[in-house]
Amino acid sequence: MKKLTGKIRLSLNAPVVIGFSAICFLALALGWLTQGWTTQTFFSVYRSSLLSPFTYVRFIGHIFGHANWEHFIGNIMLLLVIGPLLEEKYGSSNIAFVILATALVTGLVNFIFFPHAQLLGASGVVFAFILLSPFTSMKEGTIPITLLLVAAIYIGEQVYSGIFVQDNISHLTHILGGFVGSGLGFVMYKNKMDRAQNYRRLQ
Fold first, then answer.
1. Each residue of 63-82: b (16+ CB within 10 Å) or e?
2. Could you give the percent of the chain with pLDDT greater than 70?
3. H-run or E-run covering 114
């Protein structure tokens, strides 16, 4: 019987997703140590003066902040399940762009249209990833049924909850995150198809 002699090493398979999760954990720990000061100052977005530089930091920083441990675990567990598969498929730079685009869109919408609401958490990024994931199996000239099912179930549920359920969850953030993820998924798929067609023409 042949023995396995090779060493098992840890693999940094998704540096952006792991790094994002680590920053979220650090933000949560800082919020606890400072009794919420860092969360209020850096890791949540709300209507504030445009003359303050912290306002612009919060347009991005709000995706790293979480209200408590349960809020953090709920988002990060989904990110760590879905994120690495997407990062291996699309590359770290594209996934970083999806995260930043989701943060900016949701942050600006909350700042402009919901002046009395404070937004924090990675749930918008989670929904962007959920709606991005069906594009991994998309082929030229087809629309995956899974994309339609995911969009109908997740977006439909968020619309329903936003109208009929009274809670502290920003359902609009989830919907916007889903649109960002699906929109960028289509753009990345289209660019991939265009590159493939150009390559075939050169052969």
1. bbbbbeeebbeebbebbeeb
2. 78
3. none
Determine which of 20-24, 144-148, 193-197 has the lowest per-residue pLDDT on average.
193-197
Strands (DSSP E) found in the chain:
none
Contact (CB, 8 A) for 96 and 16:
yes
Q: From 167, 178, 46, select the one nearest 116 (Cα to Cα).
A: 46
Give yes or no for a contact between 78 and 126, defined as CB atoms under 8 angstroms apart. Answer: yes
Whether 203 shows a pLDDT value over 70: the answer reads: no
Cα distance from N-terminal residue to C-terminal residue, the chain:
48
Per the structure block, which two tokens stand in for 17? Answer: 């997703």
pLDDT at position 174 is: 73
Q: Is the pTM of this model over 0.85?
A: no
Give the residue-averaged pLDDT of 161-170: 60
181 by Cβ neighbours in 10 Å (0-12 / 13-18 / 19+) ranks as: buried
- The structure tokens listed for 117 are 């609401």
**pLDDT higher than threshold 60 for residue 200:** no
User: What does the alpha-carbon distance between residue 13 and residue 89 come to, in Å, rounded to a whole number?
Assistant: 11
State the Cα–Cα distance between residues 65 and 44, nearest whole angstrom: 6
